[in-house]
Each structure stands twice: as structure tokens, then as C-alpha cells.
Amino acid sequence: xxxxxxxxxxxxxxxxxxxxxxxxxxxxxxxxxxxxxxxxxxxxxxxxxxxxxxxxxxxxxxxxxxxxxxxxxxxxxxxxxxxxx
Length: 85
What we know:
With 85 residues, this protein is mainly α. The chain is built from three helices and two strands; from the N terminus they run H-H-E-E-H. The protein has a domain of 55 residues. A hairpin with a 2-residue loop joins strand 1 and strand 2.
């Protein structure tokens, strides 16, 4: 059983990690849309970068965020001894 201090520390790490992941998600989701006019000036393989970020780039970033969050939470869980069996 975790002490109150350990539990608070665990949730603080969990909360900070969630905030980081959500900030990156929001930046990619809304930031790319807000600057799409500027991004469309850059062309990659015949497609504007704004189109690419909307159709493929954002999905790749989201997949990387999921993998990052899962691996980081596994290490935090092990650190506090609350990992799944």
C-alpha cells in the first residue's frame, strides 16, 4: 500500500505527463490548422505541407504520443510499485 505522500507524488507525475501529452496534442491539432496558410507554401512530393500535416502528419504524431505515454506510464507505475501483473 502506498503512503499518502507516495500517492500524491504518483498522481503529480501522472498529471504532469498528461498535461505534456495534451499540450503537444493541442499544438499539433490546432497549431497546424492555424498556420496552414503558411504551411501550404511548402510543398512536399507535390502536396502542400498543410494538407500533409492534416492528413498524415498529425496521425503520426498522435501515434507517437500514445506509444510515449504508455511507455512512460509503465515506468512510473514500476517506480511506485503499482504496475499490472
